[in-house]
Specification:
The complex is a heterodimer of chains A (about 120) and B (about 110). Chain A is an all-beta fold. Chain A is about 0% helix and about 55% strand. Chain A is built from no helices and 13 strands. The mean pLDDT of chain A is about 95. Chain B is about 0% helix and about 55% strand. In chain B, the strands form two sheets. In chain B, strands 2, 4, 5, 9, 10 and 11 form a six-stranded mixed sheet that branches. In chain B, strand 4 and strand 5 form a beta hairpin. The model of chain B has no long low-confidence stretch (mean pLDDT about 90). The chains are: A mainly beta (about 120), B mainly beta (about 110). At the A-B interface, strand 4 and strand 5 of A face strand 5 and strand 10 of B.
Chain lengths: ~120, ~110
């Protein structure tokens, strides 16, 4: 059973560019959340997708956007990249059961470096 | 003030030692509590959920004090393989996102 898979694993972009990160959830999961983890910090919640809609959003600017497809896979897009966007981007998948999210499983992350 | 605060660490302990991590959270409406473990340059993985009654999983014991908004993790008989960053996590109220502390780095020395 494949867990959560993310691509690419590493990426280098220039300031001002745009980037798209991809995530395939664990089999049986229908909810995808994205997190940003700066060096030495804990992950910070960006947003969560369920049924192809953004269900919840953290304190991130509109430059961060996402999408979920009918097969539950998801993309994170970041426009107008800033040096401060350099971080590990983590995708987590879970399911909704009786109104509660089940355990979240994380992918290995995409390490984005903005130069 | 951060929503979840942890001991800054790092903690360097000898094998066999007992080590305790503490965490406080600011949102009294928080409903679910967890400890995650993150190895260097890897993804976070759930170590254990934390319940008001306290819970134990082998050498690991987690405690929750809702009145003080305080969570703890105790690791007994530390192993080299316990070396990692330990992240305190809460789910605030009805929100579904995980809110992480900054993590405490543990190194177990031979």
């Amino acid at each position: 059973d494949a867990g959560v898979t993310q691509s690419p694993t590493h990426l280098i972009k220039t300031r001002g560019q745009q980037v798209t990160l991809r995530c395939s959830p664990k089999s049986g999961h229908d909810t995808v959340s994205w997190y940003q983890q700066a060096l030495g910090q804990g992950p910070q919640f960006i947003f969560q997708y369920y049924e192809e809609e953004e269900r919840q959003r953290g304190n991130f600017p509109d430059r961060f956007s996402g999408h979920q497809y009918p097969n539950y896979s998801s993309e994170l897009n970041v426009n107008a990249l800033l040096l401060g966007d350099s971080a590990l981007y983590l995708c987590a998948s879970s399911s909704l059961l009786d109104g509660w999210d089940t355990e979240a499983f994380f992918g290995q992350g995409t390490r984005l470096t903005v130069v | 003030r951060k929503e979840v605060e942890q001991d800054p660490g790092p903690f360097n302990v000898p094998e066999g030692a007992t080590v305790a991590f503490n965490c406080t959270y600011s949102n009294s409406a928080s409903q679910s509590f967890f400890w995650y473990r993150q190895d260097c340059r890897k993804e976070p993985k759930l170590l254990m959920s934390v319940y008001s009654s306290g819970n134990e999983d082998g050498r690991f014991t987690a405690q929750l004090n809702r009145a003080s908004q305080y969570i703890s993790l105790l690791i007994r008989d530390s192993k080299l393989s316990d070396s990692a960053t330990y992240l305190c996590v809460v789910t605030p109220g009805s929100a579904r996102q995980l809110t992480f502390g900054s993590g405490t780095q543990l190194t177990v020395l031979p």
